[in-house]
Amino acid sequence: MERFDKQSDNVKGALILMLAAFGFSLMVAMIKVAGERLPVTQILFIRQLGMTVMLAPVLMKTFPGSLKSGQIHLQFARIFLALIAMVFGFSAIIHMPLADATAIAFAKSFFVTIFAVLFLKETVGVYRWSAVVIGFIGVLVMVRPGTAGFSMYGLMAISAAASAGLVMVIIRLLSRTDPPSTILAYQAIGVGIIMAVPAVIQWVPPTPTEWALLAAIGFVSYFAQKANIYAFSYGEASLLASLDYVRLVYATLFGWLLFSELPAMSTWIGAGIVILASIYTVHRETKRKQKIASAPNGRGFSNP
Fold first, then answer.
1. Long-range contacts made by residues 114-121, C-beta under 8 angstroms, separation at least 24?
2. pTM, to two decimals
3. d(CA 75, CA 66)
4. Cα end-to-end distance, the chain, whole Å
5. Quick one: which of 149, 97, 105 has its CA closest to 254?
6. CA trace torsion 77, 79, 85, 91 (10° rounding)
7. d(C-alpha 136, C-alpha 103), whole Å
8. Mean pLDDT of residues grouped by 10 in the chain (304 residues)?
9. pLDDT, tens digit (0-9, with 9 covering 90-100), for 161-173
10. What whole-number percentage of the chain has pLDDT above 90?
């Protein structure tokens, strides 16, 4: 612990992010294992129930104020979009190679750019638009429309990335009025309530091993999210956003060890294009913020 304390904030953030990325990758690997027999609705319901239980101590301290929102319509929009992102994303994880589903999920950053222009009225220059176009070309290389390797699950993975991108934009808007615990609570509880009915209808009695697996999914996903938050509290966002692509390495490793999956060459090429375009987008966003912050009227600026 003493050695960790001596590191710079960026090194601390990077180390914690590596742990968070491992946790997220382990979570999706466990979802893929559980999905071999259990329906995705049941997995999602139990995951959300577990997260709600872990959030309960924090929420109960200030209840009912912890559920008071200044933009309730955006909270419900976020629940709906998070539901789409998770159902489609989990389905893609279960039915696609882990590395493929993980790589396509990185397209989220391009959708964030598009939705930020539409809903936040952000200004995006020709370089960032070019990165978005190139990034989507990388996605097409991985999905391979019109070939034997194309499947509906590739489209689900893209839809999940688009929904997750819009969720991030909504979170920017919600963060102007609502604390993080309230935003997280609405998502955890709302998605869980909606998933309760289809989960009961499609319920498959889990074995003791599957119950342990489902509990581990909730536990690991909660602490991976906490680690992710701590990482960004230490390190610079631009650096950590670039390092987050280590998830693809972990996903490839888990896919190989647990499911004997190795990515096709098209996945490596497409993922490389997506990652480079995403890193460039992060770089341009960082430079834009630096210019705004250094402007005469830029003091106190905060990106929503």
1. 114/165, 115/165, 115/166, 115/169, 116/169, 116/172, 119/169, 119/173, 120/169, 120/172, 120/173, 120/304
2. 0.79
3. 13
4. 34
5. 97
6. -140
7. 12
8. 66 82 92 94 90 77 74 89 92 90 83 81 77 82 66 88 88 79 80 92 94 91 80 67 76 89 82 79 59 40 35
9. 999 889 888 887 8
10. 23
